[in-house]
Amino acid sequence: MPDLFVVTVAVLFGLLMGSFANVLILRDNRLSTVWTGRSECPHCGRQLGVLDLVPVLSWLVLRGRCRSCRAPISWQYPLVELAMGIMAYLSVSIGYLALGSAWLAGTWFISSFFLLIVTGTDVRTQMLRVEYTLIVGLVAFVGNLLSGFLSWQSMLTGLLVGGGVIAVIAYGWKLATGNLGMGEGDIWLAGALGVLVGWPNVVALFVVAVGAGALVGVPMLLKKGQGKTLPFGPFLILGALISLTSWGDQVLRWYLL
Ligand SMILES: [Zn+2]
Asked: How many CB atoms lie within 10 A of CB 112?
């Protein structure tokens, strides 16, 4: 199959899965309502037609407003769809076309779908969905083994270092201040991401996550005022993504050499 065809199909499928991710993020991940309830405008209750459900495009054509009542539609919709389209592109072009493994491309695609839901839910409700992080860890373990991308030793080290670092920070903070500085979900997430990227990539993951967390998070916390907690999950996920690119290699070189 020509590469362009494979990539196009993957991106289109990614955009569609992005729409599905939106539904799961907004309905607080209760699967039953996803299947029984029809999508409708939360403002006027108008049921959405097929034309309203084309990823990214329908939002752009309607300029972010409901077709009948003109109420604004959250930019979360096109953003999540676009993000999943980009993740599909990266998974297929790097995992399948460059590294030659359909298993690896599939692993990354499925992982990004669940991680996108984890990110969206974390940002929206400050709740980290542990069950989705466990799926990511499991899918990553099987996919990395089947593709030969990572050895089980590399994944085990990634799991222990990833989950361990966050656990030490969280429980150390608890000893010092009396409450858990981070959500327990972050420990699970860091462990699952450690399996996904393996050792030594997990080092780059933390460097990027802590750096981005400090750059973006601290000003945000100062603006919001004290007593707010920062969702750290999205920064860990960003770190995982970058640790698998050539930027991640450079971060590793700075830190390990
Ligand atoms: Zn409406």
From this structure: 27
Ligand 1 centroid from CA 69, angstroms: 4
CA distances from 99 to 43, 91, 105, 147, 238 (A): 47, 10, 9, 10, 21
Ligand 1 centroid to residue 19 C-alpha, Å: 18
% of the chain beyond a pLDDT of 90 = 48
Average pLDDT, integer, range 112-133:
89
Ligand 1 center from residue 66 Cα (angstroms): 5
Q: Residue 1: what pLDDT? A: 65
Residue at token pair 């450690």: 194
Query: pLDDT for 63-80, tens place per residue?
Result: 888 888 888 888 888 999
CA of 27 relative to ligand 1 center, distance in Å: 18
Please give the distance, rounded to the nearest whole angstrom, from the Cα atom of residue 14 to the centre of ligand 1: 26
* C-alpha span between 117 and 20 (Å, rounded): 10
C-beta of residue 257 within 8 angstroms of C-beta of residue 205: no
- Closest-CA residue to 109 (of 98, 133, 93, 127): 93
What is residue 36's predicted lDDT score, i.e. its pLDDT? 45
- Give the Å distance between the CA of 29 and the centre of ligand 1: 23
Cβ-contact 61, 71 below 8 angstroms: no
CA atoms of 164 and 196, how far apart (whole Å): 15
Rounded to an integer, the average pLDDT of 4-10 is: 94
> In the prediction, which pLDDT does 28 show?
57
